[in-house]
């Protein structure tokens, strides 16, 4: 749990409806599915247990918001972190499995696991918070 300031007011992080291991299990159960193509943000939001909209239009919008609030990190992403990267001329998000591996809807169109360096050399990560999710 942490605290951030949004538009001049402090906001307490609530725990995600699904914890990290449950969210990763949910994602791994969907490996091979093509149903999530181009919905990487929705996939991550649902993996962590949020059924309603995240409040962000798309991964690029989310990344801008996270950057504006100084919530992005560089370096090795810990297990369960959201990893933001650019591929095929757009921002995408996957979830870190640790040790440089991620899971999520990949640019190929299917949910899969892969080595992050094979996706992009330019990435940042954030904690798996969805401040506007319900």
Tell me what the structure shows.
By secondary structure, the protein is of the alpha+beta class. Helix content is 23%, strand content 28%. Mean pLDDT is 88; it is low at 1-6. It has helices at residues 20-28, 40-47, 59-68, 116-119, and strands spanning 3-6, 9-12, 82-87, 90-98, 101-105, 111-115, 123-126. The strands form two sheets. It has a five-stranded antiparallel sheet. The chain has a two-stranded antiparallel ribbon with strand order 1-2. It has one domain: endopeptidase fold (from Nostoc punctiforme) (Alpha-Beta Complex). Helix 1 (20-28) crosses helix 2 (40-47).
Helix content: 10-25%
Element order: H for helix, E for strand: EEHHHEEEEHE
Instruction: Give the CATH class.
Output: Alpha Beta
Task: Characterize the main sheet.
Answer: 5 strands, antiparallel
Determine Rg (CA atoms, Å).
14 Å
> What is the residue-mean pLDDT, rounded to a whole number?
88
And the CATH topology? Answer: endopeptidase fold (from Nostoc punctiforme)
Shape: globular
The assembly state of the depicted protein chains is single chain
How many distinct folded domains?
A: 1
Q: What is the count of β-strands?
A: 7
How much of the sequence is in beta strands? 25-35%
Uncertain segments of ≥5 residues (pLDDT<50)? 1-6
From the coordinates shown, what is the CATH architecture?
Alpha-Beta Complex
Quickly describe the structure.
The chain has 134 residues and is α+β, with helices and mostly antiparallel strands. It has four helices and seven strands.
